[in-house]
Amino acid sequence: MSAVLDDDVPVALPEHIPVLPLRDTVTYPDTLTPLAVGQDRSIQLVNDVLSGDRMLVMLGSKDPDLDTPGPDQLHTVGVAGVVARMLKVPDGSLRILVQAGQRVRIDEWVGEEPYLMAKVSELPDEVEEGPELTALMRNVQQTFTHIIEEVPYLPEELQMAVANLEDPSALAHLIAGALRIKVEEKQALLEETDVSKRLRRLSEVLARELDIVAIGSKIQSQVMSEMESSQREYVLRQQLKAIQEELGEKDPAEAEMDDLRSQLAELALPEDVRKQTDRELSRLEKLPQAAAEHGVIRTYLEWIASLPWGKRTEDNLDLAHAREVLDEDHYDITKVKDRILEFLAVRKLMGGRGRDPSGSSIMCFVGPPGVGKTSLGKSIARAMGRKFERISAGGVRDEAEIRGHRRTYIGAMPGTIIRALRDAGAQNPLFMIDEIDKMGADYRGDPASAMLEVLDPEQNSSFRDHYLDVPFDLSGVLFITTANTLDTIPPPLRDRMEIIQLAGYTEEEKLQIAKRYLVPRQIERSGLKRSQVAFTDAGLKAIISSYTREAGVRSLEREIASACRKVALSVALGTHERKVSVTAPKVRELLGRARFHSDMKRRTAEPGVATGLAWTPVGGDVLFIEATAMPGKGKLTITGQLGDVMKESAQAALSYVRGHADLPDDWFATHDLHVHVPAGAIPKDGPSAGITMATALMSLVTGQPVRDDVAMTGELTLTGQVLPIGGLKEKALAAQRAGVRRILAPSRNEADLDDIPEALRKNLEFVWVEEIGDVFDAALVNGRPGYARPRPRI
């Protein structure tokens, strides 16, 4: 056995030789083959042979898609060769030049790591001299010469090389390597050892290629006789058309135009939209496909065709069904459910026509996170049988996100309203616009202003997107928006919506929500079964009171999920033997130490500390207002990252205390006061802490501690009047979570008691106060201070 080096000196093949797999390539004997090597094992193979005898075997792969084919995926006949040159490229791959030698056959695979190794034997040619062989050689040479004259990718030098070759085997190898034929045919020519049969098969391939060249020349002559030579692009398209006619196919451009025309004809378009569409379609038919505007107009018409013009879903106006769906998905929130039923009742009495005439049908759910605003929209859509689409308005700063971009811009597209209508596939879906209070405005426009038309029932029947530039009727869409706070919503936009407040949940409501919805859902998501884990009421109450402090139930669901995962781990490890009952002690075992404790007694044990109630966008909260005094010159220091309104409340509270406390005349002139509101890292503002600050200061100067079961809220005037505040329900919920049982609130807020659930009212005592003296009576340990109090200890 031998291979051939550059100087044609035969070299014996080793007993075991590395095998380099080839993809979409067949190498023939006695040829120079350039190869690109990128696989790690192939790179190692090349490096190893370069440090040795430079010899390898090149085998074609049966499946070109395989990156690292094994012995079973390779052909058994290949070519041995010697690596003549090697070049490393920057991407880590190699470029090699292989001098191919003798054809070989794989006798036995001897290794696969780190690359393929095999035992091979030579597969010499079988040459039978005679006139038939000579005739075959001449036929091959003549046919290939004709192909060279017609095909541009074959150089003319090949014609001279083929004419001078007298070795039939070398002739077959040279022509087969130059032709662009299938890899399978090239491999078959390589595996054929009988030179006469190889030349005969090569003659058949050349005859077929010559016919293809002749057909191409015919098509070229037909096209060139019809078109001017200067219009190269049009010539190419005519060539394609002639080829399609030869194959009996239809022009794709015409087929696409017919399809678009039929789609538009089937739509129930309004008259003005139909005129605009016909005008654009006429322009599109006149434009050549290569024109820049062709793609713009086609995309525009495709958007028109994709919209649900006149397509509507039937509303399910069965009130009993709606009530059942709403109760199934959400616990309590009776006011919201009643509003939805009222909307459906009106539509039912009107026969399903028009909007709700009793008021705006644009509802805005306002409440802290986790109270079910978004999921409530899904339930309403399910109850009504409408398509549901959610649009996130949070962080949107570009007006074009709502109204779309004009078609003059590159990459223009419709706004989010039109895109959502396309996705819904109906002209009357339910749109849930989430976080509408978090839209911003900058130099690109004001998206909140763009929403004015969308959310106005009197205007959105002719909503005009900048991209479509035709009116689209949005009056059938039921819009529902959500927000955490109303303060950041512009007044004109807020005026177009019916505000429905969703406050936080009481402990009892959280318990029922956990039992009905959260626990079953998390047991299923954890891969558990009801027979493996159960949560007791005591266990859920322990999670609610000791591991969460929120208005909604998201944190509660996360803690339940954490407990379920702990149980799932024990089941997966096989340490679970019986059903796990998550009781209060088990909760501490699964979730660790409690995160929240009631520290009212500890915080209010010293004089000068009062407990206030605050409202935040994420629900109510409890504030501890601390006051202290020290020798000084009458300076007031206020800390805790307070806003201007809250600082002014502290000033008003101090003025009242200075005017009514029974202290020496020079006491305030010789002492500095410091009012602090933890936590200092959280910004705070608002007037409702006025009576709390006055109570803390009065507690300080009289030496009386504030009762540890009392929290208060109310705005204080300089005359001692207590003015009403907002968010009483959220503040009452915060008081319940903190373990407070007595709430001092302005008497003018007594009407807000109807918004507080009955179960919460039973567990809380509300004391209605009209002036600050009533607050001191109910809050200070010894009641309203008299006029003979001892001087406080500083």
TrEMBL record:
<dbReference type="InterPro" id="IPR008268">
    <property type="entry name" value="Peptidase_S16_AS"/>
</dbReference>
<comment type="function">
    <text>ATP-dependent serine protease that mediates the selective degradation of mutant and abnormal proteins as well as certain short-lived regulatory proteins. Required for cellular homeostasis and for survival from DNA damage and developmental changes induced by stress. Degrades polypeptides processively to yield small peptide fragments that are 5 to 10 amino acids long. Binds to DNA in a double-stranded, site-specific manner.</text>
</comment>
<dbReference type="GO" id="GO:0016887">
    <property type="term" value="F:ATP hydrolysis activity"/>
</dbReference>
<dbReference type="InterPro" id="IPR027543">
    <property type="entry name" value="Lon_bac"/>
</dbReference>
<comment type="subunit">
    <text>Homohexamer. Organized in a ring with a central cavity.</text>
</comment>
<keyword id="KW-0378">Hydrolase</keyword>
<keyword id="KW-0547">Nucleotide-binding</keyword>
<dbReference type="Pfam" id="PF22667">
    <property type="entry name" value="Lon_lid"/>
</dbReference>
<keyword id="KW-0067">ATP-binding</keyword>
<dbReference type="GO" id="GO:0006515">
    <property type="term" value="P:protein quality control for misfolded or incompletely synthesized proteins"/>
</dbReference>
<dbReference type="Pfam" id="PF00004">
    <property type="entry name" value="AAA"/>
</dbReference>
<dbReference type="InterPro" id="IPR003111">
    <property type="entry name" value="Lon_prtase_N"/>
</dbReference>
<dbReference type="Pfam" id="PF02190">
    <property type="entry name" value="LON_substr_bdg"/>
</dbReference>
<keyword id="KW-0346">Stress response</keyword>
<feature type="domain" description="Lon N-terminal">
    <location>
        <begin position="17"/>
        <end position="210"/>
    </location>
</feature>
<dbReference type="InterPro" id="IPR014721">
    <property type="entry name" value="Ribsml_uS5_D2-typ_fold_subgr"/>
</dbReference>
<dbReference type="InterPro" id="IPR003959">
    <property type="entry name" value="ATPase_AAA_core"/>
</dbReference>
<dbReference type="GO" id="GO:0043565">
    <property type="term" value="F:sequence-specific DNA binding"/>
</dbReference>
<feature type="domain" description="Lon proteolytic">
    <location>
        <begin position="604"/>
        <end position="782"/>
    </location>
</feature>
<feature type="binding site">
    <location>
        <begin position="367"/>
        <end position="374"/>
    </location>
    <ligand>
        <name>ATP</name>
    </ligand>
</feature>
<protein>
    <recommendedName>
        <fullName>Lon protease</fullName>
        <ecNumber>3.4.21.53</ecNumber>
    </recommendedName>
</protein>
<keyword id="KW-0720">Serine protease</keyword>
<dbReference type="InterPro" id="IPR008269">
    <property type="entry name" value="Lon_proteolytic"/>
</dbReference>
<dbReference type="InterPro" id="IPR015947">
    <property type="entry name" value="PUA-like_sf"/>
</dbReference>
<dbReference type="InterPro" id="IPR003593">
    <property type="entry name" value="AAA+_ATPase"/>
</dbReference>
<dbReference type="InterPro" id="IPR046336">
    <property type="entry name" value="Lon_prtase_N_sf"/>
</dbReference>
<dbReference type="InterPro" id="IPR027065">
    <property type="entry name" value="Lon_Prtase"/>
</dbReference>
<dbReference type="InterPro" id="IPR027417">
    <property type="entry name" value="P-loop_NTPase"/>
</dbReference>
<dbReference type="Pfam" id="PF05362">
    <property type="entry name" value="Lon_C"/>
</dbReference>
<dbReference type="GO" id="GO:0004176">
    <property type="term" value="F:ATP-dependent peptidase activity"/>
</dbReference>
<dbReference type="InterPro" id="IPR054594">
    <property type="entry name" value="Lon_lid"/>
</dbReference>
<keyword id="KW-0963">Cytoplasm</keyword>
<dbReference type="GO" id="GO:0034605">
    <property type="term" value="P:cellular response to heat"/>
</dbReference>
<feature type="active site">
    <location>
        <position position="731"/>
    </location>
</feature>
<dbReference type="GO" id="GO:0004252">
    <property type="term" value="F:serine-type endopeptidase activity"/>
</dbReference>
<dbReference type="InterPro" id="IPR020568">
    <property type="entry name" value="Ribosomal_Su5_D2-typ_SF"/>
</dbReference>
<dbReference type="GO" id="GO:0005524">
    <property type="term" value="F:ATP binding"/>
</dbReference>
<dbReference type="GO" id="GO:0005737">
    <property type="term" value="C:cytoplasm"/>
</dbReference>
<feature type="active site">
    <location>
        <position position="688"/>
    </location>
</feature>
<comment type="similarity">
    <text>Belongs to the peptidase S16 family.</text>
</comment>
<keyword id="KW-0645">Protease</keyword>
<dbReference type="InterPro" id="IPR004815">
    <property type="entry name" value="Lon_bac/euk-typ"/>
</dbReference>
